[in-house]
Design goal:
- With 304 residues, this protein is mainly alpha-helical.
- Helix content is 74%, strand content 3%.
- Helix 1 runs parallel beside helix 5.
Length: 304
């Protein structure tokens, strides 16, 4: 039971970090109608900035907000210099342009930091485990990730549903032209949404740095999972992004943890060890196909 509980918490942790990426991506795509494949590059930049600032200052807690702010500024620069010119272009032009940004970002990272991965350690105060219940220990740093992910999810929900800014976002999502006629400065609204998405990417990249490798190209793999999440949850839906991210996180984590053991019951150990993670990765896309078969618009297609 302890192993199952641990893997569920791992899936929750990974799912919440996927939500931070998918939430920004689904807002950008659902509201701005922009296919931004460079979203994963902002996640990578956030992780690299976090590792660099933490190494320079020796203070994890100081580096975290600085990395988020710097990544948000990079997102603003990207939106002002390139992305704003893509709003009225077709999706093919958007994909080609943002794919170019991925290549440029990877090369820039290699030029600045080199091809070797960077080390990013969790703060010493969170390096050990915490006893959640009698005899059940869980890493303190992963609990921090879960807590931050939940706070961001609640904050984003309240922002979109309970504030004037959220009302403008929903108005832009429902009818962009009418919102502009009613006085909404759509260009500023789009820039704010893009910067918010960049900041959420930075949070995910900075917090996952001590858990995963901070390396060139780290954004591409997680971008694919984020796209799967928004397809499962429904494009433009924050609630759908959260539910889809949790489903993907738990399926991926549980599959990698338990499938090798199950397969080892009737397959050699080395075969089961290699086949299990592969089947876990396939299970995510099987889940997506099943959702699309029964609900082609996703689980929660309503915007907002």
């Amino acid at each position: 039971m302890q192993l199952i509980a641990e893997q569920l918490l791992n899936g929750l942790q990974f799912g919440l970090m996927l939500f931070l990426l998918a939430a920004g991506l689904t807002l950008v795509f659902g509201i701005m109608d922009l296919m931004n494949l460079a979203h994963g590059s902002l996640y990578m930049i956030g992780a690299y900035l976090m590792a660099t600032i933490a190494a320079a200052t020796g203070n994890f807690w100081l580096a975290l907000p600085l990395a988020i702010v710097c990544t948000a500024l990079v997102g603003l620069l990207l939106e002002r210099s390139l992305v704003r010119h893509l709003y009225h272009r077709d999706h093919l032009a958007q994909v080609l342009a943002t794919c170019a940004v991925i290549l440029i970002a990877d090369d820039r990272v290699k030029m600045i930091w080199g091809p070797a991965p960077l080390m990013l350690n969790a703060p010493p105060s969170l390096a050990g485990p915490v006893e959640l219940v009698l005899g059940f220990y869980y890493p303190a740093y992963r609990l921090l990730i879960i807590g931050v992910g939940l706070l961001c999810a609640v904050g984003l929900y309240l922002l979109v549903t309970r504030t004037r800014a959220g009302m403008l976002v929903r108005a832009g999502a429902s009818n962009r032209e009418m919102a502009a006629v009613m006085g909404v400065r759509v260009s500023r609204l789009f820039a704010a949404i893009f910067v918010l998405g960049a900041a959420l990417c930075a949070v995910a990249g900075a917090l996952l740095g001590p858990v995963l490798a901070v390396e060139v190209g780290m954004g591409e793999n997680i971008l694919i999972l984020a796209l799967v999440v928004i397809v499962i949850g429904g494009i433009g839906s924050i609630r759908g992004a959260l539910v889809g991210a949790l489903l993907v996180g738990i399926v991926d984590t549980a599959g990698r943890a338990f499938l090798p053991t199950l397969l080892n019951a009737f397959l050699p150990l080395n075969v089961a060890a290699n086949l299990g993670p592969a089947l876990a990765a396939i299970a995510i896309y099987v889940l997506m196909a099943a959702v699309l078969f029964f609900k082609p618009s996703g689980l929660f297609p309503a915007r907002g």
